[in-house]
Amino acid sequence: MAINAFGLYVRRNPTFSWRMSEGWKTKGDAEPSDAYISSMRFSGAVTLWIGSFVMIMGILNLL
Question: What pTM value is reported for the model?
Fold first, then answer.
């Protein structure tokens, strides 16, 4: 469940991790590149898929 929450958060806010890791190093209104935003959205989608797979396998294991 936490994996899905993290994936959803990354999917909806792809610039959050950039601001935490790189944004503080720049002056002014710097923004991440479009390629970075796209790759983070893709990573969020993959994380959602993995989280869903793990959750489904866990439910099936209980049956």
Answer: 0.81
